[in-house]
Structures are given as structure tokens and as C-alpha cells.
Fold this sequence. Notes:
- By secondary structure, the protein is of the alpha/beta class.
- Helix content is 36%, strand content 16%.
- It folds into five domains: 10-262, Rossmann fold (3-Layer(aba) Sandwich); 270-470, Rossmann fold; 484-561; 604-728, no CATH class; 750-882, 3-Layer(aba) Sandwich (Trna Endonuclease, Chain: A, domain 1).
- An eight-stranded mixed beta sheet has the order 11-10-12-9-13-14-8-15, with helices on both faces.
- Strand 27 and strand 28 (832-835) form a beta hairpin.
- The longest helix is centred in the last third of the chain and has 27 residues, at 705-731.
Amino acid sequence: MAAVNFELRSYQQDALDALQGYLSDVPTMGARTAFISAANMLYTPAPFLNEDAPYVCIRIPTGGGKTIVAAHSIGVAAKAYLHTDSPMVLWLVPSKAILNQTLDALRDLDHPYRAALAADFGRNLTVLTVEEALSLSRPDASGGACIIVSTLQAFRVEETDGRKVYQDAGALMDHFSGLNEEQIARLEKVDGTHRPVASLANVLKLHRPMIIVDEAHNNQTALSFDTLSRFDPSLILEMTATPQAKIDPAKNLYPSNVLYHVSAAELKAAEMIKLPIRLQTDADWKKVIGQAYDCREALENEAKEEQAETGEYIRPIILFQAQSQSKTDPDRLTIDKVTEYLTETMRIPREQIALHGGGYKELDSLDDVADPSCDVRYVITIQALREGWDCPFAYVLCSVGELKSATAVEQILGRVLRMPQARRKTRDTLNRAYAFVASKNFNDTAGNLKDGLVVGAGFDRLEAEELVKAHSGFQFSEERGDYQHESDAIPDTPDSKPADVINAIQKLPPSIRNKVEFDPESRKLKVTGVVSRDQRNTMLMTFNKVPGAEKAVESLFIRSNRIQASELIQGDKLPFIVPQLCIYRQDELELLSRDHFLDLPWNLADCDPANFVDRYRIKDASTVGLIDTSNEGRMTVAFVGDVQEQLSMLVHEPAWTLPRLVNWIDRGIPHPDVTKPAAKVFISNALEGLMRRKNYALDELARYRAELRRALKEEIDKLRKEREAGSYDALFAADAQKFETAADKAIVFDAQNYAYNQPYRGGHKFQKHYFQEIGDLNETGEEFQCAQYLDNHKDVRYWVRNVDRKPNAFWLQLPSGKFYPDFVALLTDGRVMAVEYKGAHLMAESRDKLRIGELWADASAGKCLFVIPTDRNFAVIDDAIKGV
């Protein structure tokens, strides 16, 4: 199989982790309670379906890569919830165009979607259409993952294709031979007989499918849920940018249970989308077209410079939004009129223009619009482009008619947001999208664009307010690649002599050092070409010990990228740099991480499973009833046990041996820190102990293997934490001189990389937060009060809400993971303070956080402070600043 290298973005992995955590809890907590625990929101079961079947939604805005998450979710559900190597999946898409696109990707061995499936199921994988599934063989259905891709309409009885799904099919007869009475009882029967209908619907029902619903907001009617109920699904996972939030059955409104929500900030930080959108309006539609044309030409020049530097090919495209024809209004700017203006007046070659809509379908004839041999630079449509058509080269939206509502733009706006190659460009002009609209009112047009981001692209309302900025032209007077940009002057201080500046330049990586100069007379830095955001951050860290250099570097970044005033953080803000904790190893200063106190791989084979053997007992789910409470206080839900047992009966397993059972259990327990042989030895010892000391037969253990795997995973996790805690304690016995903080190994807080799950929505207006948006801060509570205290503190210049597990957040190493302090503050005297707030009842759990935080502060030679206020005692912040 071809190797595919595709690394999930952090938010995609976080979404899958949330799903894995939720599904792991469902067997012991139930679908409702597990959701409330995970999402802290009310749960609404899917109508017409078993209310114990998990029904959740992952919300990812346009351009965020929903489908790759959906592909990985199958393996997550199979391992964490279904405990089967042979899941049946019904993957529902909104249209035939998306169906063909999804099928092609899932079948392409070189595609990341297929690679995601292969990582969990290898070659034991079948991808089918409904038509192909009507002759599905029994081995394909039970010999690995079986994925049927379809529209929901194909399963509706009133449709011709839908009727075939419910009818006898000779090719499916084999699926129903040898079933026991319990299995037959669940199936639809031929009228007047006890024989199950040999239908695809019954095959699905037999296999308790996982249902993935792509663009779920299109399929949330009572009829849709009633159709899904015919297949007795084990779970339903919705993937959408715009989930339904309201509940009103009378109006066919059923809410989604949003388990995980990805913000626009996360997409921007992950380099998935172009933001902000620069908007320019004019009442004259011809001027608007001219402005859009000039913008695209300038972007193409930038793209050529980008290609010369990085090798990446980009051909910026304008999406023109024309008006539909009207018998009563002959002056409307239709596709034909816009085309005539472009070709006759603007002298644009016709081969550079593609028309789609109003009877034209020229996009359908383009194999790959991103191919360098393709000439298309202009696409003219009316409202919706071809469904499933994605082109990250689309940079400019130009609407020749007034945008009078969000619906006028929502379907096309998302097409200009996707970032080519999902990777930020060195030129910031290529990291933004552009919109030119014929309008007399900029504010109304901006409002409709923002509404389109919310309604059509799935962005949060508060985020959308910051994503549309005024565009006033590029002022591309410095278009040459060899143009030198000058910075503001570096102040003349004892620590910023010319030798200090030149010494800092020499420490820069060659790719930056070779284009940076310093003029000792003017005290200005000069740079040839543009300074990318990453280069700017590197320069900030390198010039950290040169007072005043940070403003000079910032001015170079702004000028070389032609960043406009509307995009800048308000106020004259200093760069916010937070040194990280490092440790010397073999005279090299390295960022402190787990491998500095843990020897890997961990030899799990040396661990004794005796405690596990003593505690474990088999619980027969069939005797539990609906819900029972185990010795650990957890709840065992019979629904999940039924699903797992029904799936296991479909697979004709050969006789179980101890090695086979060990291997089956091992495959479902992730252990990147343990070799496979070591894990198998531990599992084998545990199973032998259960058979020897509890008198369990091997077949008995095999029957309850799903529960056994879960219990062994918990035991391994417990042993891992004990080992990590012991090794971590030894770290603090090391010589204090081994630790140091380093400015060149630091976090640079940057608006482009500030990611969060939800923006702050409270009425209180904070004045000193470093960014306009505040991430993941509740409107009330003790953490909110701590934020207020920092915001009002006379010694705090800025502060940042430091969000857990985001790529550019500040962290310190703990035994089993990373610790992200709640807040990081830049004081007026230049020191950095990390603040972790804890309620009084949680203080006992903070021992390791306090130790590592104080170690970080001690290693900084007075440049960093760490404090843990508790029980609203914010005076400890004052004490830390004063050095009390």
C-alpha cells in the first residue's frame, strides 16, 4: 500500500480525542450522562431511535477538514466503543457530487482519507456504493471495516432506489443463514413468514452500523431520523459547520449534541484558512471589477515571488458573483454581461474565464484547476458553485450586485477561505482573502459578509466580528523582490550599541541573517524582501536582549507585508515573549520534556499484574438489566453490551487461544511508550493469573474480551502514571544549575496563532488582554474574577488567557503531560508572571504544578514569577510582584 504522510492538525486530533473519551465513557455512564460530563451541556436523544444510542456532533467550520476527522472516527469508534475489527459504517453525504468525491478519496490508496482508514484496518477494508452493497458478500461484511457511502435519499422508501434497499435480494441471502432466534427477532420478516427479508436494510440492521452524517444540518427532519431508525444504528456521528441548535418538533427542528466545536481562531492558527477578509466597496460596479482585477494582478505578482522563494505554485483566482436573469429587469448584471465586460472592455482572454451557473457548467470540464497548465484566473457564477468544488487558489470574491443578505453570499464565501496547501505563506498578502462588492454602504455589506461567515461557514458570531477588515489597496510601490524595507530606529541605550545589534544579527539563522542589515548611523534595520511571521518571531527572540529592538522588528514585519492599520492590534503593544524552562544535557540547553526524566521504551513486562488479577471480576451484561452500578461506582449500560455481543456473533472466530486473545486485546490499547512484545507479556501474565487464581476459562475470558480490554487499559494507565510520578520526583533532586530559561526557546504570543475553543461572551469589557478576543473564559466564577484582578492591576501591562493544549500556548512539563497556567501576564517592569488559579478544594492536586512553576521562576534569574492564588486570595499576586 502506498505510504501517505498526513499529520492531523492539533484541533482535529483534539476532536478525535474528545470523541474517544466520550465513547469510552458511554459503556459505563450511558450516552446522556457521558455527553453531559464531556460537553457540560444538555443532551437530546435522536428522535425515533433508541435513546441509549450515542448521538453527537463534531462542529468544524468551512475549510477545517471535517472529512479527515470523519475517516479517523471510524477507527476510534471501533476500538473505544464497538470493540470490533469489522465495523459496518453508513456514511451519508448531502449530494451525488459529494458522494462521488468522497468515494474517490476513500478508494484512492494515496489519499489521506484512505490512509486514515488503513491505519486502523489495514487491507481489511471495503468501500461501496448502495448499488454495490446490494450484492455485498458476507465475508466483506464481517471480515473488516465495511463502509457504504450514500445519500440519505437513496434509503427513502418513496424513492425507486430506496425501495431496492428494503426488498429481497438473492445476492444477500447468505447473510441470513445460520442466525439464531435472537438475531432473527430483530429483523424485518417476509409477510406471513418467520424468514428475514434478505434486504440491504436488514444486513445493516444485523450489523448495528455506525452512521456518519456529513453536512448534518441538511438531514435533520423527522423523516430523516425515521429512515435512520430502520437500521438500528449503534451510534450517529454528525459532521457539520452549522449544527441545528433549536428544538421544535412541530417545525421539524431537532438539535445536534455538539461534543466538540472548532473555532475560527484554531483554523487560522493551524494555517487552514485565509483570514481576515479585506473588504472594499464602491457604488460603481465597473470600478469594483477594476479593483478586484488590480488586486488579483498584484496577488499573482506576489505569488510568483513566493514560488521563486519556496517553490510553491499559486495562481490567484477571482470568483465573480453575477446576478440572475430577470424578465422584468433587463439591466441586471448577468453572467453573460459580466463576461462581455471582462473580455471586451478589460481585454481578458476568454480561456482565462470559466462560467458556472445560468446554464453554464464549464467547471465540470476542468480536471484540475490547480494544475499549472490551467489558464483559468476568473470564475463567474451566480450564487452556488459546483457542489464539492474546492479551489484554494480562489483569493478574491467580487460581487457586482449589492449583498442584501447573508444568504446571498454564504454559499460562495467559503470558497475563498481555504488556504493553498493548508500552509501559511511567507507573504502575508497571500494569507488573507479579499472581497470587492458593488455597494453604497460599507457597514451593511461588512455586516452581511460577517453573517455569511456565521450562517454559511459555521464561524462564531463574536469571531466573525473581527474577521472582516477594511481594504484600502496594497500601495504596491515596492513590488521588486530586492526592495529593502527599513525599520523604526532602535533607541540608543547602553545595552543596544551597534555591536550588540550586529552580534544579535549574527545569531540569526542563515535564511534570515543573509537578508538583514543594520545601519549604525540611522540605527535602523533593513531587510530585503518580506519578513514572514515565523521569521519575525525568530528575530524577536534573538533580539530579546537588545532594548527597543522589538519595535524595530515589528515595524519591519508590518511594512514588508503591507499590513494595514485595520488589522493591527490596537495600541502600541510590545511583543509578548515568554521564556520556557530548559535543562542542560551534555552541555546543550534543551526544552524540558518527558524524555529528560523517563527512560523509553517502558518495559511493561517487568510490572506485576497481581493487583489487577485480585480486583477484576467478570460481569455478565445480560444479567444487569438496563443499568447497574459496579463496585467502582460506575454504571454499566446494557445497550452497549448488547451491541458488542451482537457484533461479535456476526464474526465466525476460530477457536480462541491465549496468544490470539492477547493479540486482540493488545491491538485495542494504545501504548506508544511500550514495545509490542513487552505489552503482550504483561497482558499474557494478567490473563494467566485470572485463569489460575480466579478459575476463569479461556473461552469465558474471550467472551467478555471487550470489558477485559477496557479494564486492562485502565490498569496499564494506572501503572504508567505511578512510574511517571516516581521519575518526575527524581527530577527535582537534580542540581538547580541544570535548569535555565532561554529567550531563544520561548513562546511568542501572536494574534495569528492564538487559538481557543470558544470566545469570551461576557458583558465585562477587559482593557489589558493582549488580543482582541479572549479564549475560553467563563462570564462568571473565580477564574473570571482572577482575570479581572489582573486586568485592573497597576503593575500588569498585558495579560493573556492561556488556553489548554493549543499549539502556541505556554506550558510546563508535568509527570503525565503538559501544564498550561490559566493566565500569563507581562508586567510593566518587563517581568513575566504565570498565574494558575485553583479553588480551595483543588489545591491539594496542585503539588506538581507548584513545584514545576517555582522551578521555572527560580531558573529565570528573577525574570519570571509563578503564583497559584486560591479561594479568591488574589493578594498573593501582589506579594509575588513585590517579592514578599
